[in-house]
Specification:
Blueprint: H1 4-18, H2 22-36, H3 44-63, H4 65-75, H5 85-100, H6 106-119, H7 126-138, H8 149-157, H9 161-171, H10 173-183, E1 189-193, H11 200-209, E2 215-216, E3 223-226, H12 236-239, E4 243-245, H13 248-256, E5 264-267, H14 274-282, E6 288-293, H15 296-309, E7 314-318, E8 331-337, H16 363-375, E9 378-388, H17 397-406, E10 410-412, E11 428-431, H18 433-436, E12 441-448
Parallel strand pairs: 5-6, 5-8, 6-7, 8-9
Antiparallel strand pairs: 1-3, 1-4, 2-3, 9-12, 10-12, 11-12
């Protein structure tokens, strides 16, 4: 079997070279290795340990790449640009172990890195890799220091300077640093009970038998925190449709809509369907939830999830959120969870850290157009919720302010019961990982209070 270190380096190479999604790149490489190792005498437990170690290295490097590259740059004579892509990934994997996995012997890290250069057909770089790593060890694994405080924070937390600056300006220096630290800690694992199939107590008993150690979240009824994610699809409770995976912030977003039994509700950008499911369950399976998304493949995720959960009230089909459908009915409540930069989910999608600020410049324009379109589906007296999983005011408050200025018949509305600390709060909520124990998230609740 190929070593965990080599597996991680090869999967990382595919992320960089092919711009592959991180989870798909690793899963595909692990599946490829499993096929090639079929019939191997290696014990199953040993293979599981190698897979777990490869995952730790892969996601650790993705998360800490800014820090790692800064160190490599210091000790590589020709700088990072002079290093081949394969050797760069080998060095990143090695530096990650030396910096963040201190229980691994230094000799094992160096020797394995040199060995992998040969296995990945880069034998000529073995002396270079050995020299760079040993120079770093001679300096007691010290991080480079800079006079610029923002640069220092960027290297310490592996968050790009433009992102830290944005958060400092929007939320203050203390919140910005605490957010950066929180995104480097393991993200909490949350699920939501399906009250149409079981009680919270029944779900927790089933999960305890599977050693998932569930903890109900008192401030958000129906929300359960798990000690870890693991492979939830194999659990009996999952297969019976007793729960779906959903972060606490996303649950609060769905609950903020305040959907009631028998109503007609629209989830305009619904895939993969977590909020749709929570809304349908809150309605007791009655009424109807129309769940739309642009692509048929993503709509399929909603359909399959609704089927597993037994949510017959969910109707899903492809629709472009930017285009108004004149044949559509008006809805009691509309959820507009728009595509966004995703700066609130860095802990779950570390590759977002390496996007450029310019990549997101057009998003507010698109988000505003979707919100304007969503508002056309709201009946008189109906509720409209706008949300994102980002912590960027240009995509949050500024989009809403523009909308409210141009649509005075919509006004901010207080959050309903069941929204935890935000119950009763007027209109807006910005959830942060270090204060709310959730993904970064923005929710705005509005009501249409007069005829058009």
């Amino acid at each position: 079997m190929v070593s965990a270190r080599q597996l991680a380096a090869e999967a990382l190479l595919r992320v960089d070279r092919d711009k592959a999604y991180s989870n798909l790149a690793l899963d595909q490489r692990l599946e490829q290795e499993a096929r090639s190792s079929a019939g191997s005498p290696s014990p199953t437990e040993q293979r599981k340990a190698e897979v777990a170690f490869a995952s730790t290295l892969f996601y650790g490097v993705l998360e800490r790449r800014i820090t790692l590259d800064c160190c490599i740059e210091k000790y590589a004579v020709k700088g990072i640009k002079g290093i081949s892509p394969e050797v760069l990934q080998i060095l990143r994997v090695a530096f990650y172990q030396l910096l963040f996995l201190p229980n691994i012997p230094e000799s094992a890290v160096v020797n394995e890195a040199v060995k992998i250069t040969r296995q990945m057909r880069r034998s000529s770089a073995s002396g270079f890799v050995n020299g760079v790593l040993r120079s770093f060890l001679r300096d007691d694994r010290a991080l480079p220091h800079f006079d610029d405080p923002l640069r220092e924070l960027s290297i310490l937390y592996s968050i790009p300077e433009w992102m830290l600056s944005l958060w400092q300006n929007a939320y203050g220096p203390e919140n910005a640093e605490q957010m950066a630290a929180a995104f480097n800690r393991p993200s909490p694992a949350y699920i939501r009970v399906n009250p149409l199939k079981c009680t919270l107590e029944e779900l927790c008993r089933s999960l305890e038998e599977e050693e998932m150690y569930p903890s109900p979240v008192p401030e958000v009824p129906g929300c359960v925190r798990l000690s870890h994610m693991g492979n939830l699809r194999k659990l009996a409770a999952f297969q019976m449709g007793w729960f779906h995976v959903q972060d606490k912030s996303s649950q609060l977003c769905a609950l903020s809509l305040g959907a009631q039994p028998g109503e007609l509700v629209l989830d305009l950008c619904a895939a993969p369907g977590g909020k749709t499911f929570t809304i349908a369950q809150q309605m007791g399976g009655s009424g109807r939830v129309d769940a739309f998304d642009l692509y048929e493949k993503r709509v399929g995720l909603i359909r399959s999830g609704a089927q597993r959960l037994g949510l017959d009230s969910v109707q899903s089909r492809p629709r472009d959120a930017l285009e108004y459908c004149p044949d559509s009915p008006l809805y009691d409540r509309v959820l507009c969870d728009v595509p966004c930069s995703g700066l609130g989910v860095l802990g779950r999608k570390p590759e977002i850290r390496y996007k450029e600020q310019a990549d997101f410049e057009d998003l507010p324009r698109i988000q505003y157009k979707i919100l304007e379109n969503a508002a056309r589906y709201v009946k008189d007296g109906g509720t409209l919720v706008y949300s994102t999983c980002t912590l960027r005011p240009e995509e949050n408050q500024k989009v809403v302010r523009r909308f409210l200025e141009r649509n005075p018949h919509f006004t901010l509305s207080a959050f309903p019961e069941g929204c935890g600390a935000y119950t009763g709060r007027e209109g807006e909520a910005t959830l942060m990982p270090h204060t709310d124990g959730t993904d970064g998230f923005y929710i705005c609740r509005m009501i249409q209070n007069s005829k058009r």
